[in-house]
Specification:
There is one protein chain. This protein has 152 residues and is an alpha+beta fold. It has one domain: Nuclear Transport Factor 2, Chain: A (Roll), CATH 3.10.450.50. The chain has five helices and five strands, in the order H-H-H-E-H-E-E-E-E-H. It has a five-stranded mixed beta sheet with strand order 1-5-4-3-2. Strand 2 and strand 3 form a beta hairpin. Helix 1 packs across helix 2. The longest helix is centred in the first third of the chain and has 18 residues. The radius of gyration is 16 Å and the shape is globular. The termini are far apart. The relative contact order is 0.19. This is Ketosteroid isomerase-like protein. Pfam families: SnoaL_2 (PF12680). One of its GO terms (molecular function) is isomerase activity. Keywords: Isomerase.
Length: 152
Amino acid sequence: MTDPSTRADRDHPQASTRATVTEFLSRVAEGDPDRIAELFADRVDWQLNWPDEGDPSVPWIRPRSTRADVAEHFRELNAAHVRENRGGMQPQILIDGQNAVVLGDIRQTARSTGRSYRALIALHLTIANNQITRYHVYEDSLTVAQALTPSR
């Protein structure tokens, strides 16, 4: 007998993609790194629009490739920000088969500097078997780095 969820994914990949992306965004809003990571495949095509050498003010922005790396990313991100001051606008989700683009913004307050910021963001996600296999982030990295860099 065929698993109905597998048949639904094959017959309606856009519905499956949308459901996974919606659940991902819900879990990000909740803020539990382990629950977020559960939605990712064992191996992830991970990319953030940042120079390879990174920046010490944003230690969570670095190469990742595993589900455990994903959980660590969201732990580091949470540790750097004031949880009560985060938010963003309702994201727009565009779906094409297994691919999704999420457009929105993030609003955070840096714990280290107390500076609030708003950064535009786009995510390119690929979903296979109800898991995120590609996670590419395009954000206003300069705004993020400025908010987290201590004044000189």
